[in-house]
């Protein structure tokens, strides 16, 4: 593992405007530094206070942090709470209860508003329906839903009865869904007949049927189907029921079930460095604290704010900053069903104007594609809309390049809105390194400084601290409340992946390379240092894609997958393939490449389709048979090979692999 990279020199600094500083909760750098000091001086006392101030406990905790079985850390573990009560019931009897919780804009532009009171009733009723289906505390429930109010209701209803949800992104294949149902031991799947995206009706329930037909889903008893569109779908008698059927006659009142702080609120599958996705398990207490706290710290959320996070609930960002955080903070949020480029690439800007969005949170990939669209079609440039309601902009999911940052700052933020470039991961539960909008001077391309209490550092392979300016591995040296608790069903993999022995077994290894600037000590993330790719902000394992390719046993003998930089998607998937037949060229190569792309889409999902597929008679290997991935990365980038190839068994194939299809 090595992440040494040249240090990009970025001299532009944008301090927050004075009025913003004055109005903010954490006002000015001195206030931020004071919080950091508090956390350093009395680590447990600091977190105990935050947990008391920000979470409603049904039973107060007496222990803050239990490190006796590190790295299986426990936070607030003798405390009890309910996550849904912390998002909904908490607001009953306060002015928030009659405020809008969700402004839902459907794909076709139809807008629906749901108040906190109404949302509580819908969640209560759905929770009762789940109970009537025999779903109980501790059961696992898969949610395979479009971006709709119903998706959030399903998540909240699971939390309300203490069932552990596992949301699977609606773009994943039947095979991926099947594996997750089996791994989680799910008793139910909550889905919709179809999803609407870009004016198209795309099947969801049919994919659930395929997933179950693949076999092995022995724990599964029930499939609940939200009829998003009037189009009928297959319904298996006894197993499948529509929302209408199960909600009928159910009361809207459902007492939230108190669970221990460490009770698994959810499992979310994400890619790692092996072929099998990891079920990242999160707690209830520590996670919820983080969702609420970061809404306050990073977005400085205020009663009049209209918050819009564009992430899908199938990703961690859609968990923390759609399904839980905004509700725990009592905010009004926009939920959008569709896609940013339909009916045209002005959709986001139009929606910001229409809903008077004040805090907007999206991914660099979306920004880059909207820049491209605005450059080719002036009609979709953000200047055509009134974006003056905006006060804070956010970025998440991948490094934001300084050019995109500047465009976002100028054309969306009107040079007035601070940009919070939030670094975090599925495993961290919420933001860990990010600017604070009323304190931190921002620098394009930098996620700046860790939140108070996050002991982030950059180290070498042995865990030794590196000086500013030197690139190395990003670690977090002390536990934090919302950290991953384990990998579902695989505690050994949890220890091995995140807490390497060489570093003492207690330091969290993020899997990213990073460098701190020499002047301010600001962090800049240089990208993954493991076998994880980040394509359009979506995590994909190279091994996952390789296993998918070689599982096409009639065609593929061997495959190696690497990432290469891409202007639009950040990284693109590049696959090198050896077939069980002579190396194809010309039209035949194109045809087979397409066949393989569709195969990967079927095995994992369309997001994993390799952009580039190259065929060779062999792969570049050392004499001991190891695939030289570094060489493949250079070939994928189109670089001249400068590495020493003398140890290569078969140098001639390099030329073959450089040929594009
Ligand atoms: C990357 C998404 C640079 C990083 C919340 C990380 C980022 C991976 C940033 C996690 C950022 C996320 N700057 N890189 N602001 N945010 N990343 O689990 O490589 O889907 O390890 O969580 O995305 O992706 P995940």
TrEMBL record:
Q: Outline the extent of the AMP-binding enzyme C-terminal domain.
A: 544-626
Which major enzyme category is it? ligase
- Binding residues for ATP: 397-399, 421-426, 512, 528, 539
Q: Where are the N6-acetyllysine modifications?
A: 626
Q: Which GO terms describe its cellular component?
A: cytosol
User: A GO term (biological process) for this protein?
Assistant: acetyl-CoA biosynthetic process from acetate
Binding of CoA, residues: 197-200, 317, 536
One Pfam match: AMP-binding
Residues recorded as binding Mg(2+), renumbered to this chain, are 550, 556
Key words of the record: Acetylation, ATP-binding, Ligase, Magnesium, Metal-binding, Nucleotide-binding
Sorted alphabetically, which InterPro entries does this protein's record hold? Ac_CoA_lig (IPR011904), ACAS_N (IPR032387), AMP-bd_C (IPR025110), AMP-bd_C_sf (IPR045851), AMP-binding_CS (IPR020845), AMP-dep_synth/lig_dom (IPR000873), ANL_N_sf (IPR042099)
AMP-dependent synthetase/ligase domain location is 98-480
The catalysed reaction is:
acetate + ATP + CoA = acetyl-CoA + AMP + diphosphate
What does its PTM field state?
A: Acetylated. Deacetylation by the SIR2-homolog deacetylase activates the enzyme.
Q: What molecular function does GO assign, one term? A: acetate-CoA ligase activity
E.C. no: 6.2.1.1
Acetyl-coenzyme A synthetase N-terminal domain: residues covered: 32-87
Q: Which cofactor does it need?
A: Mg(2+)
Q: Which domain of life is it from?
A: Bacteria
What Gene3D superfamilies is this protein classified in?
Answer: 3.30.300.30, N-terminal domain of ligase-like
Question: What PANTHER family has UniProt attached to this entry?
Answer: ACETYL-COENZYME A SYNTHETASE, ACETYL-COENZYME A SYNTHETASE 1
Q: What does this protein do?
A: Catalyzes the conversion of acetate into acetyl-CoA (AcCoA), an essential intermediate at the junction of anabolic and catabolic pathways. AcsA undergoes a two-step reaction. In the first half reaction, AcsA combines acetate with ATP to form acetyl-adenylate (AcAMP) intermediate. In the second half reaction, it can then transfer the acetyl group from AcAMP to the sulfhydryl group of CoA, forming the product AcCoA.
Spell out the family assignment given in the record's similarity comment. Belongs to the ATP-dependent AMP-binding enzyme family.
Q: What is this protein called?
A: Acetyl-coenzyme A synthetase
Q: Which organism is it from?
A: Ramlibacter tataouinensis (strain ATCC BAA-407 / DSM 14655 / LMG 21543 / TTB310)
């Amino acid at each position: 593992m090595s992440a040494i990279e040249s240090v990009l020199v970025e001299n532009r600094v944008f301090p927050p405007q004075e009025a913003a500083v004055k109005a903010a909760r954490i006002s000015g750098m001195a206030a931020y530094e004071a919080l950091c000091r508090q956390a350093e001086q009395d680590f447990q006392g600091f977190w105990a206070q935050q947990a008391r101030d920000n979470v409603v406990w049904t039973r107060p905790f007496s222990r803050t942090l239990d490190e006796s079985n590190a790295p299986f850390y426990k936070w607030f573990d003798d405390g009890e709470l309910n996550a849904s009560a912390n998002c909904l019931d908490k607001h009953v009897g306060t002015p928030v209860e009659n405020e809008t919780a969700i402004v839902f804009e459907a794909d076709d532009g139809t807008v629906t508003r749901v108040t906190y009171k109404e949302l509580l009733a819908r969640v209560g009723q759905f929770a009762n329906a789940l109970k009537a289906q025999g779903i109980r505390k501790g059961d696992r429930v898969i949610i395979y839903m479009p971006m709709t109010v119903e998706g959030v209701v399903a998540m909240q209803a699971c939390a309300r009865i203490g069932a552990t949800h596992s949301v699977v992104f609606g773009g994943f294949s039947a095979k991926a869904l099947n594996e997750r149902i089996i791994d989680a031991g799910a008793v139910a799947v909550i889905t919709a007949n179809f999803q609407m995206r870009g004016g198209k009706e795309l099947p969801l329930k049919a994919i659930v049927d395929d997933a179950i037909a693949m076999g092995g889903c022995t724990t599964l008893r029930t499939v609940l189907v939200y009829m998003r569109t009037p189009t009928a779908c297959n319904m298996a008698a006894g197993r499948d029921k529509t929302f209408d059927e199960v909600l009928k006659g159910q009361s809207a009142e459902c007492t939230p079930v108190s669970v221990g702080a460490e009770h698994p609120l959810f499992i979310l599958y994400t890619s790692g460095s092996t072929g099998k996705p990891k079920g990242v398990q999160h707690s209830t207490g520590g996670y919820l604290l983080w969702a609420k706290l970061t809404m306050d710290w990073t977005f400085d959320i205020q009663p009049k704010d209209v918050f819009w996070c564009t992430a899908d609930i199938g990703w961690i960002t859609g968990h923390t900053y759609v399904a839980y955080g905004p509700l725990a903070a009592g905010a009004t949020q926009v939920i959008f069903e569709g896609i940013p480029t339909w009916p045209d690439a002005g959709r986001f800007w139009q929606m910001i104007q229409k809903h008077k969005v004040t805090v907007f949170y999206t991914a660099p990939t979306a920004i880059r594609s909207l820049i491209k669209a605005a450059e080719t079609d002036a009609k979709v440039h953000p200047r055509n809309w009134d974006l003056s309601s905006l006060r804070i902009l956010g970025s998440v999911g991948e490094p934001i390049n300084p050019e995109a940052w500047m465009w976002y700052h100028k054309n969306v933020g009107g040079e007035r809105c601070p940009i919070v470039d939030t670094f975090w991961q599925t495993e961290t539960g919420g933001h860990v390194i990010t600017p604070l909008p009323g304190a931190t001077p921002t620098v394009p391309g930098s996620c700046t400084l860790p939140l108070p209490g996050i002991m982030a550092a950059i180290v070498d392979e042995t865990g030794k601290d590196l000086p500013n300016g030197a690139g190395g591995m990003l670690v977090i040296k002390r536990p934090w409340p919302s950290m991953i608790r384990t990998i579902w069903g695989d505690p050994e993999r949890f220890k091995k992946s995140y807490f390497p022995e060489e570093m003492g077994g207690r330091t969290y290894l993020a899997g990213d390379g990073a460098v701190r600037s020499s002047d301010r000590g600001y962090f800049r993330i240089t990208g993954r240092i493991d076998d994880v790719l980040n394509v359009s902000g979506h995590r994909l394992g190279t091994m996952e894609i390789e296993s998918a390719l070689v599982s096409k046993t009639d065609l593929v003998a061997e495959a190696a997958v690497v990432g290469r930089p891409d202007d639009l998607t950040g990284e693109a998937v590049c696959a090198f393939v050896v077939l069980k037949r002579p190396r194809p060229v010309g039209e035949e190569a194109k045809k087979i490449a397409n066949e393989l792309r569709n195969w990967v889409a079927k095995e994992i999902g369309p997001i994993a389709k390799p952009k580039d597929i190259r065929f060779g008679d062999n792969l570049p290997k050392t004499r001991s048979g190891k695939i030289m991935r570094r060489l493949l990365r250079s070939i994928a980038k189109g670089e001249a090979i400068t590495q020493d190839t003398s140890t290569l068994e078969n140098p001639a194939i390099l030329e073959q692999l450089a040929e594009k299809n």
